[in-house]
Amino acid sequence: MNRINKSSPHRSIAIAAALGLALAGCGAVTAPAEEPPLAGAAIGGDFALTNSKGETVRWGDFAGKYRVVYFGYAFCPDICPTDMQRVAQGLKVLKAKDPAKAAQIVPIFITIDPERDTRAVVGEFTAAFSPDIIGLTGTPDQIAAAAKAFKVFYQKGEAAPGGGYLVDHSNVTYLFGPDGAPIATLPTDKGGEAVAAELDRWVS
């Protein structure tokens, strides 16, 4: 005759608790950390550029900080101002939610139009969005080297109506980790809230 072994409710609870502790102890229930989208990508590298105060700034100066990097130009009629505004909004939203995380982030704007974007112009441009954004410029050769390291395309375009000229360029907003390694791109095309959410996701 077959018998069904019925455990008491208290015994079942005790067994379940013991199994839970055992699994937690060996790490069996710990989910692996999500790998950043840009993990291992050859993006970024040292540069020597100039800030609005005329000081030389290098990539290594930001070691230990998360870095948001955007290449654009101050005379851009639409895309660059929009992207920078959304970066500033994203940082503001994150700061309100988690000041400690926001304090770990340094936003950096690098011009791809050194002919017109002097250190004064870059300083005024970035200050219009946030006093926290660091604007950088340099010689044409310095800018070209930085853009190459960060996989950014740019090319002087045709003359614009009313004088001046436009600059064709890739508009990617990168997020780098404290070690300088690339982590992800930020969705500036989706607005400040989306930027804040992505920063909150990767900054620890």
Commentary on this structure:
With 204 residues, this protein is α/β, with parallel strands linked by helices. It has a single domain, classed as Glutaredoxin (3-Layer(aba) Sandwich). The protein contains six helices and nine strands. It has a five-stranded mixed beta sheet. It has a two-stranded antiparallel ribbon with strand order 1-2. Helix 2 (79-97) crosses helix 6 (192-202).
Helix content percent band: 25-40%
Q: Give the terminus-to-terminus CA distance.
A: 60 Å
State the CATH architecture: 3-Layer(aba) Sandwich
Mean pLDDT across all residues, rounded? 87
Looking at CATH, the homologous superfamily is Glutaredoxin
SS class: alpha/beta
- The strands making up the biggest β-sheet line up spatially as 5-4-3-8-9
Biggest β-sheet strands, sense, barrel: 5 strands, mixed
Could you say how many structural domains there are in total? Answer: 1
State the name of the first-level CATH class. Answer: Alpha Beta
Q: Uncertain segments of ≥5 residues (pLDDT<50)?
A: 1-32
Helix count equals: 6
Categorize the overall geometry: globular
